[in-house]
């Protein structure tokens, strides 16, 4: 067993606080790592405060993890002690259903094992995430990181925000000659802008905040549209190949569906606490438009994303915090008061 220090929520109403527990012993196919950096995702807050009404307490959030390997099992072949690695939103899946066989573990027919808020395969035990000093993870769910040491803190959010935006952009074959909209410039949206631009698309950022225009252009957008301005929206009617909607609050989807060209697709990756208003069916049928959803990415695609980002020198824009600042970070995140992702320096634990 490995002793781990962590920060955990004991209930939906209590702040995260120091917590200690034992990680499992390193098995033949396991990789043990010391956690160096852990990004702060909106899902962490949803889970800690039981906003999705499925939290098992105590809860140790965190699924944007960069660490250093400290031990490997006898059957591990891809990693060695000292390697810098990543762990994302999953730490296991059934490994035998059709999606798992196709490298789509996030869609496991039997349910993947989340990095936190489990349940663990086989035992059903609750899993504890990256707001902790150490982890033990099955080798097949550990990822190689090739970014420079100086970039490692900013790499951490790629393990969720990066793959959440990369996967739908790849699935819908975004590339040169495509006009792509990104709705929202937060933790997800700013990664969507960077990745879509690196793929060669003409990127348009939609925002409700006029003051985000300069940042969006710096990140790679060619145009910025204030979505509250009807004239700006109307100027782009029927013109988009693809729109990636990252907003995690209920809003009118029809306003964006109307911007898609024939056979265009809008994919939702934001997960609001309450449902969006139902779209008007005529927004879809009149141009054979598609409204889709996407959930993170499989391990193979997540590795592809990390390699793509290393090649194109892409990392997240971050603000580093101490572990004991997590509740303040949550409150600031709710106010969109971060550009654009908090990352915990786990040495402060």
CATH architecture of the largest domain: Alpha-Beta Complex
Query: What number of domains?
Result: 2
Distance between the termini: 20 Å
Fold-level CATH name of the largest domain: Quinone Oxidoreductase, Chain A, domain 1
Output the helix-strand order: EEEHEEEHEEEHHEHEHEHEHEHEHEHE
Q: What is the name of the CATH class of the largest domain?
A: Alpha Beta
Report strand %: 25-35%
Taking all Cα atoms into account, the compactness measure Rg is 20 Å
On the 0 to 100 scale, the average pLDDT is 96
The tally of strands reads 17
How would the global form be characterised? Answer: globular
The largest sheet is: 7 strands, mixed
Question: What does it look like?
Answer:
The protein has 349 residues and is α/β, with parallel strands linked by helices. The protein has two domains: 2-159 and 316-348, Quinone Oxidoreductase, Chain A, domain 1 (Alpha-Beta Complex), CATH 3.90.180.10; 162-293, Rossmann fold (3-Layer(aba) Sandwich), CATH 3.40.50. The protein has eleven helices and 17 strands. It has helices at residues 42-48, 98-101, 152-155, 161-171, 187-198, 213-219, 230-234, 254-257, 281-285, 299-311, 326-334; strands spanning 2-8, 17-23, 30-39, 65-72, 84-87, 90-92, 113-114, 134-138, 143-144, 179-183, 202-207, 223-226, 240-245, 260-268, 290-293, 318-321, 341-345. Strands 3, 4, 5, 8, 9, 16 and 17 form a seven-stranded mixed β-sheet that branches. A six-stranded parallel β-sheet has the order 12-11-10-13-14-15, with helices on one face. Helix 8 (254-257) links the parallel strand 13 and strand 14 (260-268). Helix 4 packs across helix 5 and helix 4 (161-171) crosses helix 10. The longest helix has 13 residues, at 299-311. The chain is globular, with a radius of gyration of 20 Å.
């Amino acid at each position: 067993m490995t002793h781990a220090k962590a920060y955990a929520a004991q209930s939906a109403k209590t702040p995260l606080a120091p917590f200690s527990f034992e990680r499992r012993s390193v098995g033949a196919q396991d990789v043990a790592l010391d956690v160096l950096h852990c990004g702060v995702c909106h899902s962490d807050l949803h889970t800690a405060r039981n906003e999705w009404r499925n939290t098992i307490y105590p809860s140790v959030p965190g699924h944007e993890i960069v660490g250093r390997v400290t031990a490997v099992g006898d059957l591990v072949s891809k990693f060695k002690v000292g390697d810098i690695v990543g762990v994302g939103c999953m730490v296991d899946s059934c490994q035998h259903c059709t999606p798992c066989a196709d490298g789509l573990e996030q869609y496991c027919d039997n349910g993947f094992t989340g990095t936190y808020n489990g349940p663990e395969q086989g035992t059903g035990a609750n899993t504890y995430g990256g707001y902790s000093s150490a982890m033990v993870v099955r080798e097949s769910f550990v990822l190689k990181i090739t970014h420079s040491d100086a970039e490692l803190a900013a790499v951490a959010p790629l393990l969720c925000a990066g793959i959440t935006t990369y996967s739908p952009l790849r699935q819908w074959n975004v590339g040169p000659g495509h006009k792509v909209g990104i709705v929202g410039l937060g933790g997800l949206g700013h990664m969507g802008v960077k990745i879509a631009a690196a793929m060669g698309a003409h990127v348009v950022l939609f925002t409700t905040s006029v003051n985000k225009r300069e940042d969006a252009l710096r990140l790679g957008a060619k145009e910025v549209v204030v979505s509250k301005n009807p004239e700006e929206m109307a100027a782009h009617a029927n013109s988009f190949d693809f729109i990636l909607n990252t907003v995690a609050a209920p809003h009118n989807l029809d306003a964006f569906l109307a911007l898609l060209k024939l056979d265009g697709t809008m994919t939702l990756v934001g997960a609001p606490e309450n449902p969006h208003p139902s779209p008007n069916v005529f927004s879809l049928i009149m141009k054979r438009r598609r409204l889709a959803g996407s959930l993170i990415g499989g391990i193979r695609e997540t590795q592809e994303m990390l390699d793509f980002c290393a090649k194109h020198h892409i990392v997240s824009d971050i603000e580093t915090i101490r572990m004991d600042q997590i509740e303040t970070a949550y409150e600031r995140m709710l106010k969109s008061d971060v550009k654009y992702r908090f990352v915990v320096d786990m040495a402060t634990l």
